[in-house]
Write a structure and sequence with these properties.
By secondary structure, the protein is mostly beta strands. The chain is built from one helix and five strands. It starts with 10 loop residues before the first helix and ends with a strand.
């Protein structure tokens, strides 16, 4: 809450509706060893969010991720993958995304 004198902010400006929602969803993960040291992960996630306020907002999300990881040394690994994502709200334009990514992990000890 904002301290001070005067009229409180209207609920839309106070973003109160964004803090009170119900989420339902889940993920399924499948992991497979391609070789003894190279692994793959396939993840499917679905999520639905409903606003618990006079603003009847609902979003539906889903994504699929495939990642392959390989060690380079005892503390370093490299990964690459692809992602497809869908976001569909009932109050604005949604989007679809297809992406590829790569990265490097280093563990400090």
């Amino acid at each position: 809450p904002i301290a001070g004198s005067g009229t409180p902010l209207p609920p839309v400006l106070g973003i109160a509706s964004l803090n009170n929602n119900t989420q339902k969803g889940g993920s399924i993960v499948w992991t497979h060893n391609i070789t003894p040291s190279v692994t793959s992960n396939l993840t499917l996630t679905v999520l639905q969010t409903d606003a618990n306020s006079p603003f009847t907002a609902r979003t539906n999300q889903g994504n699929v991720d495939l990642t392959v990881t390989s060690p380079l040394s005892a503390r370093t690994s490299v990964f690459a993958g692809a992602r497809y994502q869908v976001f569909r709200p009932n109050f604005q334009q949604g989007y679809y995304e297809a992406a590829i990514f790569a990265g490097l992990n280093y563990t400090f000890r």
